[in-house]
Amino acid sequence: MKESSKPELRARVFISCGQTKNSEEVKTAERIGDRLEHLGFEPYIAVEEQTLLGLTENIFPRLRDSEYFIFVDFKRERLIPRGRTVDSRNLQRRGSLFSHQELAVASYLKLPLLAFQEKGVKQDDGILRFLQANATPFTDRNTLPSVIADQVQERRWNPQSRNELALELEPPHIDAQTRDGIGEVLRFFYVRVRNLHHHKTATNCYVYVEEATKLATSLDAVPIATVESKWAGYVLPNAHILPRSDRRFDAFYIPHGRPTEARFPTFSDSSAFGPPPLVGAGQYKIRYAVVSDNFPTVRASFTLTLSEKLDGATFVQNETGPSLRSL
After folding, report:
1. 255-276 pLDDT, tens per residue?
2. Is residue 273 classed exposed, middle or buried when 0-12, 13-18 and 19+ CB atoms within 10 A define those classes?
3. Fold match flag (3-154 vs 165-325)
């Protein structure tokens, strides 16, 4: 697949407005989303959820997958001190409890954030008291989308940066000999791991084979023990991947003299551990996972076809959309 045919990946912005359905705040939130989309981002507007299921299925996954977070604290009802009589015109208002909860999760996830607070909301309330967010006050909801867009550009948020890794097929294969060029000739196939973030290095990345199953058979998948796979041209199981860069790992190799056999290079000193070799002509589904200290786990599956002739072997990435991130 050519690079130009891949879907455009845009940075995801979580917009927390605490707005309830069918309120005027919905229109303001939509206008904020339109401005961010015009800047090249992928906005998500959080609508207040009333159930735990809604939180776990909508809000939490969206927060986890976002690159940036925008907090808009709309004013709510007045705060009346207990047992006191005061002029209601001078009373402060509470902000959105729902947005403050989302802000707490975003701060735990260490998402870059911008905060905006409507005039009249009690300042430094809730978790804002502990964050150095420096919320920008606003009075006009109509101009708020432009104010937010200006600050996003001032902060130089990158619309093409993603907090994730991607697994891609890496052609072509390479033939190499074992034992310093005097042993068996092997044909190596590779998968490339791309770091899609514009400034964050992916640290301590490990590769694992999670599944290796022969297709068109009634046999169940063979359980595979957890063992680290090998990075290409590298002698350690863990590797770093610089921002906007990539690294290859050894997907498997086929001995020239045994074209119907594929083996997985791993960091195991015993054949009793790790993925068993794939033996016999036919098609096999192989799923890889890459874990990292500071990026979500990413998975992708491929189909290997083994043939009686070495040049008949093919290795293609399955068309299942973007690489799968772990839940």
Report:
1. 999 999 999 999 988 777 778 8
2. middle
3. no
Which pTM was predicted? 0.78
Confirm if 144 and 116 have CB atoms less than 8 A apart.
yes
Q: Is the pLDDT of residue 73 over 80?
A: yes
Nearest C-alpha neighbor of 66 from the set 40, 95, 44? 44
Tokens found for residue 225: 């023990």
What is the Cα–Cα distance from 27 to 252, expressed in whole angstroms?
53
Residues near 3 by Cβ (< 8 Å), separated by ≥ 6?
Answer: none
Instruction: For residue range 6-29, list pLDDT tens digits in order.
Output: 557 899 999 998 666 657 788 889
Q: Where are the domains of the chain?
A: 3-154, 165-325
Cis, peptide link before residue 172, omega less than 30° from 0 = yes
Q: Which amino acid does the sequence have at 60?
A: F
Q: How far apart are CA 213 and CA 265, in angstroms?
A: 17
**Topology (CATH level 3) of domain 165-325:** Immunoglobulin-like (2.60.40)
User: Whose structure tokens read 């729902």?
Assistant: 98
Does the 3-154 domain belong in CATH 3.30.70.20? Answer: no
DSSP-derived secondary structure for 163-230: SSEEEEEEEEEEEEESTTTTS-EEEEEEEEEEE--SSPPEEEEEEEEEEEEESSS-PPPPP----PBP
**DSSP annotation string for 61-86:** HHHHH-SEEEEEE---SB-PPTT---
Q: Report pLDDT digits (tens) over 199-227.
A: 999 999 999 999 999 998 766 666 788 99
Phi-psi bin for 199: left (phi > 0), alpha (psi -120 to 50), beta? Answer: alpha
